[in-house]
């Protein structure tokens, strides 16, 4: 991977641009080390945008949105993750990236670098796509022009979602056309942290995003979607193999450039809270999914049903069948060491005396929206002190700062194949649905290093192709592990998988958007109120006002989805 320690230089550059951009200062106050915007190297602007997007995508798709789509649940600090207890959410981080990206596009024109302009158009589309997918209507056509005079630019109007999606598609088509004939003669490879200046891979990335956004609008603008997806399909220029996945590696030198749950930077606190959700885990176990062992760890201490037991539960744990007097649990570190040495830990219980059953599997998840998730499966150490020995943790790889599997995943070949499979089932001329579906499954297995299990997995009764969109989306949902935002957007559009909140959720349905943030409400109130007025109220408003997580944006209004 291209070392993105160059971010430091980029941030320094941007700071000096800020200082140097104040034209009215007296000469005595000019920064002698500042770089004039007219001299900025367009290559140095790329890492800020590419790295920022990668980090944002992981922070969404591995954290709270993973809870929404029930990939994971938290057994501590779980309100936002498990129960959608969301407040006002600002988008300043996304728009900050857009400002840098806009400057990159401007400089690309000034220095005659079509490659960088196409990169800028692609990233602009992706970032605006995330903003409108998450919130709804947003500043678009008048955004990023704060240097211009006039209230319309200082307090930009909100474009409606349809206009934003159409603009995204137009920019992606323009970028694709540039990549089709551009070269990388102006590129310093180390600054392109995705592809090292590879034009072909950028072209495939751009066209794959076109497929994503055409499918996004397929329920609202079906003719546009059909024509667009068929055109990209005919070109043959899109991601086809897991080796082409658009990813960003982590350096692992500090908390800021490491995987979010790296235990060396937070003593395992964030890692400890995350557990597999039973919605995902049960689906994978039922289908003997080989990715389970890559993503999740077996429980430290397995429950064993024992009707000969004279008490409801063992008072202490057993090591290799021998009761350990006085030991209710071990620390995580002790378990790791002793299990690695070949020891097996169990705890017996008698269901007749207990009056209920416990989860005796070697992989145990948390149910969605549980009222007391840290107590699940009769955890003897509820709270935040120790891990739940009777529930699975994420695999040990997610403790690390960096690893070949720990990547920010922007878009994958698996996603593209599932899009084309769905398109084929809709009757689009894109090839055979089953072929695309099988390729999607195989690409995901390859991504996670279990390709050898494909033949067995694809023959599972509920995995073998059955010609339904539901099956395609369910497999796409599994494949979106650590990129849960895309699974959420698919759920809103299709209603699949059929996610049901748990008892602690404030509403009986999964939310469908983020809430407009305080900055917009305080400083651009007139425009945000217009956007809020265009949201569709649902029965789950319950006095919250239209700006809530259960109001429907244009993209799903009138579709009858997801609930």
From TrEMBL:
InterPro entries xrefs: SusD-like_2, TPR-like_helical_dom_sf
Protein name: SusD-like starch-binding protein associating with outer membrane
């Amino acid at each position: 991977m291209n070392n993105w320690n160059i971010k430091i230089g980029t941030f320094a550059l941007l700071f000096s641009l800020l200082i140097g951009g104040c034209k009215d200062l007296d000469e005595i106050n000019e920064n002698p080390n500042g770089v004039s915007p007219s001299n900025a190297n367009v290559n140095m602007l790329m890492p800020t945008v590419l790295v920022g997007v990668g980090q944002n995508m992981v922070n969404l798709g591995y954290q709270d949105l993973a809870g929404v789509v029930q990939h994971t649940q938290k057994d501590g600090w779980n309100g936002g993750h498990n129960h959608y207890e969301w407040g006002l959410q600002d988008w300043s981080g996304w728009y900050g990236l857009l400002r840098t990206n806009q400057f990159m596009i401007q400089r690309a024109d000034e220095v005659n670098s079509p490659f960088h302009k196409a990169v800028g158009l692609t990233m602009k589309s992706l970032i605006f796509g995330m903003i409108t997918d998450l919130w709804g209507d947003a500043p678009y056509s008048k955004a990023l022009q704060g240097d211009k005079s006039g209230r319309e630019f200082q307090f930009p109007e909100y474009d409606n979602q349809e206009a934003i999606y159409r603009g995204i598609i137009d920019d992606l088509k323009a970028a694709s056309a540039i990549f089709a004939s551009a070269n990388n003669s102006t590129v310093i490879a180390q600054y392109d942290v995705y592809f090292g200046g590879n034009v072909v891979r950028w072209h495939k990335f751009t066209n794959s995003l076109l497929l994503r956004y055409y499918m996004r609008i397929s329920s609202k603008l079906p003719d546009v979607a059909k024509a667009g997806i068929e055109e990209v399909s005919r070109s043959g220029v899109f991601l086809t193999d897991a080796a082409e996945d658009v990813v960003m590696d982590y350096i692992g030198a500090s908390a800021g450039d490491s995987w979010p749950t790296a235990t060396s930077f937070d003593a395992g606190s964030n890692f400890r809270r995350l557990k597999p959700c039973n919605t995902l885990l049960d689906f994978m176990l039922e289908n003997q999914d080989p990715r389970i062992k890559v993503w999740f760890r077996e429980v430290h201490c397995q429950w064993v049903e024992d009707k000969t037991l004279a008490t409801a539960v063992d008072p202490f744990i057993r090591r290799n069948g021998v009761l350990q007097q006085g030991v209710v649990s071990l620390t995580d570190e002790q378990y790791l060491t002793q299990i690695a040495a070949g020891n097996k830990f169990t705890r017996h219980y008698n269901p007749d005396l207990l009056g209920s059953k416990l989860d005796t599997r070697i992989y145990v998840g948390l149910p969605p929206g549980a009222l007391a998730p840290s107590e699940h499966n009769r955890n003897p150490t509820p709270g935040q002190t120790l891990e739940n020995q009777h529930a699975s943790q994420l695999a040990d790889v997610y403790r690390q700062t960096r690893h070949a599997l720990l990547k920010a995943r922007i878009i994958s070949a698996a996603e593209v194949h599932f899009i084309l499979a769905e398109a084929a089932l809709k009757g689009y001329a894109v090839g055979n649905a089953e072929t695309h579906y099988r390729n999607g499954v195989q690409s995901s297995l390859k991504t996670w290093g279990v390709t050898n299990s494909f033949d067995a997995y694809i023959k599972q009764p509920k995995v073998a192709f059955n010609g339904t969109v539901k099956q395609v989306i369910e497999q796409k949902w599994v494949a979106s592990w650590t990129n849960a935002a895309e699974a959420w957007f698919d759920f809103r559009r299709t209603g699949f998988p059929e996610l049901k909140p748990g008892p602690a959720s404030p509403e009986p349905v999964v939310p469908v958007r983020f809430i407009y943030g305080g900055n917009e409400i305080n400083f651009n109130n007139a425009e945000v109120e217009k956007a809020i007025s265009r949201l569709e109220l649902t029965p789950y408003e319950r006095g919250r006002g239209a700006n809530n997580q259960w109001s429907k944006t244009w993209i799903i209004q009138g579709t009858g989805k997801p609930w």
